[in-house]
Write the structure tokens for this entry.
Amino acid sequence: MNVVLFGPPGVGKGTQGVRLTKDYQLTLLATGDLLRSEVKSGTSLGMKAKAFMDAGGLVPDDVVVGMIESRLVDQGGLLLDGFPRNTAQAEALDRMLASHGQQLDRVVFLCAEQDVLVERLCGRRVCRGCGRGFHLQYDSPKVSDVCDHCGGELYQRDDDHAEVISQRLAVYEEQTAPLASYYEGRTGFYRIDGSASLEQVHAELVRALEG
Ligand code: AP5
């Protein structure tokens, strides 16, 4: 099963995506995580992407499409988090899957109001070690600033500061929100309220994936 999870920054794609990939033995391809890893390793791709990410904009399509294409070979089921991000990327994904004799089986649009998104992004903390996300209020670590899972240090993402958040939300409205129209009407398209609790959203996602 190939699944796309899309929606605005902070809606819960990463949190839910990690859990679903375990439940359904899917390979997680999260472009934000892949790009942050390239930045951390100081690769030329990472250097090229960093300026766009720091400014809250999108990394150029050829960079992210190439990154996904090189990972599609011989994968089993996929869960794509953060890709596609605009119509050009969605068309490229359809083409890439078709060239491997595959298709998208589920497209899930997680949505929430802007005030919910801002609160989630401002309160998010991420582990430097294992990358797990926490929230100061809704999913807080047992010990302040320490990851429950690996003991790593928790930090605030550079793009989770107020000015960058508003830019990311504006870019989402302009470039990513139109994907709802691109996918609506396809078999396997679901719209889920991402502002519900972690457990409620998970239950709705399971319902969608079970079809
Ligand atoms: P990326 O990392 O993909 O960022 P994003 O899409 O903006 O999404 P986030 O990771 O911010 O949010 P999320 O929906 O995963 O929320 P989370 O689960 O963490 O991309 C970063 C950058 O990379 C982009 O800005 C762009 O520059 C570049 N990029 C990436 N992909 C690209 C592409 N395809 N093309 C071009 N550029 C690309 O949850 C947020 C917080 O809320 C957490 O603290 C969590 O604990 C909490 N939370 C989650 N769910 C709930 C709930 N139900 N109730 C209460 N709290 C919750």
Summary: Residues 9-15, 31-32, 35, 52-53, 56-59, 64, 82-83, 85, 89, 120, 123-124, 133-135, 138-139, 159, 168, 197-198, 201 surround BIS(adenosine)-5'-pentaphosphate (CB under 6 Å).
